[in-house]
Amino acid sequence: MTEQPERSTEPEHTPGYAAQTNIATDVIAYLLAGPLLFGGLGFLLDRWLELTFFVVIGLLAGMALSMYVIWNRYGTS
Questions:
Q1: N- to C-terminal Cα separation, the chain
Q2: Which of 24, 30, 32, 53 is most buried, taking the most CB atoms under 10 A from its CB?
């Protein structure tokens, strides 16, 4: 049996770009994905239940959760 080489725990970087560029694009993706996902779910709940406040709750919850994920992932190092 052949031994597998150890995998690096550091993220792969695109040649010619700084590591901060990858972190910045990840953070922007988190900031957009959270509110869009939870806001979309709130919108669907609003349409289904014929209410008007789940979109706002979804947007706020999505932003709070994405900020928490960013802080947990990048702010604790």
A1: 37
A2: 30
Helix (H) or strand (E) holding 42: helix 19-49
Taken as a whole, the chain contains a residue count of: 77
DSSP structural state of residue 15: T
pLDDT digits (tens, 9 = 90+) for 2-19: 676 666 566 565 565 666
E strand or H helix that includes residue 28: helix 19-49
Contact 25, 65 (CB under 8 A): no
Taking the CA atoms of 61, 28, 32 and 9 in sequence, report the sign of the dihedral they define. negative
